[in-house]
Amino acid sequence: MPLEGKNNPAENPAPQIARLQVLQWFEELKQKHPEFEWIGIYRRDPSNPNELVVFCFIGPPTPHTRIPIDSGICGAAVCEAQSINVPNVQEDSRYLACSLSTKSELVIPIRDTNGEIIAELDIDCSKKNGFSPKIQKELENFVLQIENLKALFD
Ligand code: SME
After folding, report:
1. May I ask the CATH class of domain 6-147?
2. Which DSSP symbol is given to 69?
3. 141 FRET partner, CA 20 to 30 A, in 30, 39, 49, 112?
């Protein structure tokens, strides 16, 4: 059955354009930080907010396309409603491995205009301690930029 109304990219291209914009920003981030080996967004499944679903990313495919919010660093960032910076993934029992080369990870919640967490930015880094306080702050500002793309999750 053909997609109708706002879910049809031909009728409403805004979400696709917003997603392409985000992927371009990810590529620019990767150029600035080649040690970032996976940069992506997980979205809370609108029909089941207790699960995260991979939304868009650059880097190798992840086995974790769907993550319950009671699992992983990704789930913890939703439950704790804050950024989670893991300097050494091998020392964090919550960590769900995506790639053997990942050494550190940062997850930052993405909120809607009501402050509800609707998604998150997830970055895997090939170096331990990949996210200094300064880099974390820059990435939290980057998330504000993503939050301003209102059509992204339409
Ligand atoms: N490491 C994440 C899983 C997602 S992959 O890194 C892309 C976690 O522990 O939740």
Report:
1. alpha beta
2. T
3. 49
